[in-house]
């Protein structure tokens, strides 16, 4: 009988070690998760950058559309309207976030408009200035998507290597 209690003590000690190790993994996982959360001031900065970059892109985009193959058509007007709507949405998202500290719902709408613009930028071949500015906007959108854990559909798109010859 004495051997049983000695064996039981070892088993109990082993069980305690396993439980403590499991608890340690759980706590460290939660700590890592908490540290990866983006602060409100960082989100505010990402939104400010997005709004500024979208606003800076609009005149370049509009000018490039006016020189594109769809110039003077309803498609050109639709493209300009889509860009204006996108800029407006980014301003509203930033304003809403500053009031409520939440922008997830607005971000989904902004991302939907961004996909439309992405399609236009790539199909109309609007030139290197617009493409460079669009890459900045996409980087801002990606940061916000990561902060809100929202799927970034544009990040998964494969871009062909475009060589620009001057």
Describe the fold and architecture.
- The chain has helices at 2-35, 40-67, 74-100, 104-124, 128-148.
- It folds into 2 domains: 1-37; 40-148, no CATH class.
- The protein is mainly alpha-helical and 166 residues long.
- The radius of gyration is 25 Å and the shape is elongated.
Topology:
Blueprint lengths: L1 H34 L4 H28 L6 H27 L3 H21 L3 H21 L18
Describe what is shown at a glance:
By secondary structure, this protein is mostly helical. 79% of the residues lie in helices and 0% in strands.
Key phrases:
166 residues; mainly alpha; 2 domains; 0% strand; elongated; disordered C terminus
Helical residue percent band: over 70%
- Strand share of the residues? under 5%
Bulk shape: elongated
Mean pLDDT score, rounded? 80
Residue windows where pLDDT falls under 50 for at least 5 positions:
25-35, 157-166
Q: Count of helices? A: 5
Reading the helices and strands in chain order gives HHHHH
**Structural class estimated from helices and strands:** mainly alpha
Q: What is the strand tally?
A: 0
Q: Using only CA atoms, what is the Rg?
A: 25 Å
The largest sheet is: none
* Number of domains as seen in the coordinates: 2
Give the distance, in angstroms, between the N- and C-terminal Cα atoms.
90 Å
